[in-house]
């Protein structure tokens, strides 16, 4: 009896840091944001309860269009990242051995030792009108005028894919590693072409890894701030910029809080939909990640 | 894993660090200001004279208000918002405390500027701000590449497509309103008329947007782009223009035909500031002509200190004289205090401008 109680206490004590961390730093602030999002300004220093901030999102095309654009571009970025990361992960997991494998993973990791801001500024130096690429193109005679490659959606997608690559490669490589070579061989023995083996054996086996990677990259992308701000053009407003604007330049915290909640809810809904469409459950995916 | 002894050592070290930290924080002034307003040598001189250490945080108008609002006016002992951005946020959020004018040496200020600022920053007949640094918003132009630019509307000239810039903030709205024959300041009192006027300005800017390379955010970003020739004309601060002018005489700051926009940055004390004495000391120290002249030279702007102009360096004076003939000075539009609520109208116009294509 006493031993049981003691072990329960131990369990509780061991869990306490995690619970405190989650409760104080994640749940509590979100509750506060939620409460804040339901208050409307009536007069200076007077606020009342209401749904106006949420209505504003759905009635003002400006805001939901920005969100739709952000979501669409994030999905595109996730898809591109997947396509780029898959062969790399396959090579790391199946072909590379020993030292080479460790080195390849390290190479993927290396850019992340530098802060996101610096990496983005690096892209700016490459892409700007007076930048490295523009200069190279001119000196090779491909272009006669300076070429502006910055401040457009392409630059934003490039920066985001670059930033998401690692988070796709690691879960993918993890998932592919556990694939038995014998299974692949059996596929060939039974007369399967390379494409058939990839489609019917490798991809289904890697599915939990693919889904895990996609969720991480999508969530990171949709909530990114620095990359779209720095690389994006005058038309490329990201939804996070709307939230920043409401909080910082508009002093309208309730509206910003409502946008924050909407970003959380809508992007979670998109992930849920993605899981549904691919027939994956969150449980198996989490095990993989 | 940490051994017991190692963790004990670590804990002791941490405790020692905390004690040392709090002992050092005996007297400190936490200053929330603009970059360039508290040069290191001035701070050092102040610490030497008074024994008070100054902790400088650089920011801009919106972030200052947001920071103070988040803490209801705590975390800083002195802030430097622009004079037009005090009354509104004060009414809305109560983030400042009234100034005790008896503690400020008012004879150190240019009289007319002090009175105007006091009037603009008053709420319920209590004064919340005194002037420190002033300057204008106008046009920074590469006169060789864009010789014809003389007013804000010229930034929308198709001949300069992809080579102009302005900030997607309220000064752009005000400037383009004036340039297109509207008077936004006259509409300040009537929110409905103001919204209608801003919609018109928004439409004008949306049309101009295809001409703009980017909406600039930081001063350095803009100056870099002008230096490299990527931008040939922009709406920007006078100080930036003069900085460029010092390196290249073709780059000029031009007071636009429809009027440069005059701003005044102030001293204001946050509602929960902990060291008002130090704040007043810093204000009086900074307004001494010889100190004010140094700060103004470092910031590249002008000061509200009486007599500092005689101590200013010749270069800035010459540049000012070239950019501002007598008529242009009279034509400067000084921002009146922004009534609470108007910024929301402007915000939406700016959101649309940034999001639309």
From TrEMBL, chain B:
Primary location: periplasm
Secretion signal, residue range per the UniProt entry: 1-25
Keyword Signal appears in the UniProt entry: yes
Keyword match Iron: no
Subcellular location(s) of the protein: Periplasm
Keywords assigned: Periplasm, Signal, Transport
Pfam families from the UniProt entry: SBP_bac_8
Protein origin, superkingdom: Bacteria
Protein known as: Extracellular solute-binding protein
Record lineage: Bacteria, Pseudomonadati, Pseudomonadota, Alphaproteobacteria, Hyphomicrobiales
């Amino acid at each position: 009896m006493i031993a049981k109680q003691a072990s329960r206490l131990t369990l509780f004590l061991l869990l306490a840091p995690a619970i405190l961390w989650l409760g104080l730093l994640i749940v509590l602030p979100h509750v506060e944001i939620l409460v804040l999002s339901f208050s409307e300004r009536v007069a200076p220093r007077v606020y009342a309860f209401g749904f106006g901030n949420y209505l504003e999102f759905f009635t003002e095309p400006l805001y939901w269009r920005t969100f739709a654009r952000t979501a669409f571009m994030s999905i595109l970025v996730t898809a591109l990242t997947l396509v780029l990361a898959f062969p790399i992960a396959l090579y790391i997991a199946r072909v590379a051995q020993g030292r080479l494998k460790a080195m390849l993973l390290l190479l993927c990791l290396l850019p992340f030792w530098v802060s996101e801001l610096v990496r983005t500024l690096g892209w700016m130096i490459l892409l700007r009108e007076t930048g490295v690429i523009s200069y190279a193109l001119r000196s090779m005679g491909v272009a006669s005028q300076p070429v502006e490659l910055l401040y457009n959606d392409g630059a934003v997608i490039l920066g985001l894919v670059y930033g998401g690559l690692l988070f796709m490669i690691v879960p993918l490589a993890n998932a592919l590693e556990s694939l038995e070579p014998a299974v692949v061989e059996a596929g060939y023995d039974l007369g399967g072409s390379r494409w058939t083996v990839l489609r019917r054996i490798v991809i289904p086996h890697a599915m939990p890894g693919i889904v895990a990677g996609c969720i991480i990259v999508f969530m990171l992308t949709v909530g990114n701030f620095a990359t779209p701000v720095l690389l994006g053009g005058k038309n490329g407003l990201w939804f996070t910029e709307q939230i920043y604007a409401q909080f910082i330049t508009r002093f309208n915290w309730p509206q910003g809080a409502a946008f924050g909640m909407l970003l959380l809810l809508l992007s979670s809904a998109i992930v849920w939909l993605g899981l549904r469409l691919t027939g994956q459950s969150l449980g198996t995916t989490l095990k993989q990640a | 894993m940490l051994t017991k002894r190692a963790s004990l050592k670590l804990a002791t070290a941490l405790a020692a660090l905390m004690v040392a930290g709090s002992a050092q924080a005996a007297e400190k002034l936490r200053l929330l200001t603009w970059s360039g307003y508290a040069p290191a040598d001035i701070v050092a001189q102040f610490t030497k004279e008074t024994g008070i250490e100054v902790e400088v945080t650089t920011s801009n108008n919106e972030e200052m208000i947001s920071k103070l609002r988040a803490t209801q006016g705590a975390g800083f002992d002195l802030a430097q918002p622009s004079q037009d951005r005090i009354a509104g946020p004060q009414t809305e959020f109560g983030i400042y405390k009234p100034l005790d004018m008896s503690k400020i040496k008012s004879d150190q200020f240019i009289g007319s500027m002090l009175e105007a600022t006091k009037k603009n920053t008053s709420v319920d007949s209590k004064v919340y701000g005194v002037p420190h640094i002033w300057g204008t918003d106008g046009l920074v132009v590469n006169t060789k590449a864009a010789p014809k630019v003389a007013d804000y509307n010229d930034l929308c000239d198709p001949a300069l497509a992809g080579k102009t810039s302005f900030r997607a903030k309220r000064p752009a709205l005000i400037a383009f309103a004036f340039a297109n024959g509207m008077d936004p300041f006259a509409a300040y009192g009537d929110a409905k008329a103001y919204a209608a006027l801003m919609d018109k300005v928004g439409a004008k800017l949306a049309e101009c947007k295809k001409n703009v390379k980017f909406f600039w955010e930081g001063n350095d970003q803009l100056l870099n782009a002008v230096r490299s020739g990527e931008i040939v004309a922009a709406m920007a601060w006078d100080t930036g223009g003069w900085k460029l002018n010092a390196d290249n005489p073709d780059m000029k700051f031009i007071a636009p035909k429809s009027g440069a926009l005059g701003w005044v940055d102030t001293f204001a004390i946050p509602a929960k500031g902990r060291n008002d004495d130090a704040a007043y000391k810093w204000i009086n120290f900074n307004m001494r002509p010889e100190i004010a002249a140094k700060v103004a030279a470092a910031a590249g702007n002008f000061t509200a200190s009486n007599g500092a102009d005689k101590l200013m360096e010749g270069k800035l004076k010459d540049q000012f004289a070239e950019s501002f003939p007598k008529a242009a000075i009279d034509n400067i539009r000084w921002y009146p205090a922004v009534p609470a609520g108007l910024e929301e109208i402007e915000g939406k116009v700016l959101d649309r401008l940034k999001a639309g294509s």
